[in-house]
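FORM 12-B: Structure-to-Sequence Request
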């Protein structure tokens, strides 16, 4: 049966990077029997422009009716002054929640060809291959109560950090299962020395870990984890953590690779349905100039093939094509270094299509 992909380009560089990823999907359809259909929808600022809502009802419906979602990026200065509920980021948070995409997989992988791009010493990062599993639909991002209100004659802002046992349990299972397929090491990151929410998190992760005796489980406070990520990142295999800690640590981890333009992500529900997007933002400063790096979005398609469609061969085909174009010296501006060939966003997409085999 033909699978369906909802394609949500979003804002800024979103449309141009997604265009290149769609080229890759089209090439797989034409030459390698990939059986998918695609339909576009508006999200973020584009959703607001089209329907006055960063997650228009039609887009949510499309996403619900699809097997997977390919997202570009959302946000831009044009929308910063909108009331909070209309801002592009809200569209993103809502689609995650509405589709129950609780497990966010953010790999940080250093491509040997790009080792120079890292700000860390080559010996610290060479061979780096970490997977961060970030819980994505709970925590202080969604906890109630939240708000800004007047107390004792001044305004206070407040949010609630909250995890239920079941929320921790399901993401812990995902993380252990991923660790089983990798180096069998899992580090759970929290702040259990201060936060009750983290105390419960840790207790549940330990409980779930009893079902995965082959996985070596460790625990780390988030402040130490931030330090260890820049001190000796190769000690990690898989990290599992809550929404806010994962937001912060995954940005730090991405920069170890020197190229935020290279990193894909997957956000999964408990049925292998997923939303796939580059981890970088909408880069309004270079939008529409054919300068952006489409590789993170193209690699997100590889994750889609791997996790939602279970098509490891096709996923590896894309991974190999990306490695090949890097080996051949093609570089968009963000990863350019002397002696390599500078190409546009569209040329990079074409190079990947040419390298697929
Ligand atoms: C991310 C982003 C989002 C988040 C923003 C845009 C709402 O930073 O995907 O990491 O905080 O989750
Ligand atoms: Mg973030």
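FORM 12-B RESPONSE
SEQUENCE OUT:
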């Amino acid at each position: 049966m033909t699978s369906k992909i909802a394609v949500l380009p979003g804002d800024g560089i979103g449309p141009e990077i997604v265009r290149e990823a769609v080229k890759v999907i089209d090439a797989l359809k034409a030459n390698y029997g990939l059986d998918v259909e695609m339909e576009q929808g508006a999200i973020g600022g584009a959703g607001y422009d089209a329907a006055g809502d960063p997650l228009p009802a039609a887009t949510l419906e499309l996403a619900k009716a699809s097997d997977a979602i390919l997202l570009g990026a959302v946000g831009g200065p044009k929308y910063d002054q909108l009331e909070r509920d209309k801002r592009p980021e809200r569209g993103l948070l809502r689609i995650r929640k509405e589709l129950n995409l609780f497990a966010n997989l953010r790999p940080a992988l250093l491509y040997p060809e790009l080792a120079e791009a890292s700000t860390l010493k080559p010996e610290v990062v060479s061979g780096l291959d970490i997977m961060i599993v970030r819980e994505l639909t709970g925590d202080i991002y969604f906890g109630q109560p939240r708000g800004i209100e007047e107390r004792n004659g001044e305004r206070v802002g407040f949010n609630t950090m909250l995890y239920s046992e079941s929320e921790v349990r399901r993401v812990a299972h995902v993380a252990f299962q991923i660790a089983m397929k990798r180096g069998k090491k899992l580090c759970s990151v929290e702040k259990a020395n201060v936060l009750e929410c983290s105390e419960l998190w840790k207790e549940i992760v330990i409980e779930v870990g009893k079902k995965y005796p082959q996985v070596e489980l460790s625990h780390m406070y988030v402040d130490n984890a931030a330090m260890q990520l820049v001190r000796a990142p190769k000690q990690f295999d898989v990290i599992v953590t809550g929404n806010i800690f994962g937001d912060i640590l995954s940005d730090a981890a991405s920069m170890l690779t020197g190229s935020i333009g290279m990193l894909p992500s997957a956000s999964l529900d408990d049925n292998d349905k997923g939303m796939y997007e580059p981890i970088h933002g909408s880069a309004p400063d270079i939008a529409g100039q054919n300068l952006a790096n489409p590789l993170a979005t193209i690699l997100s398609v590889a994750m889609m093939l791997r996790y939602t469609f279970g098509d490891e061969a096709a996923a590896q085909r894309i991974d190999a094509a990306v490695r090949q174009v890097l080996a051949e010296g093609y570089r968009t501006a963000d990863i350019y270094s002397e002696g390599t060939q500078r190409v546009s966003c569209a040329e990079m997409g074409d190079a990947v299509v040419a390298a697929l085999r």
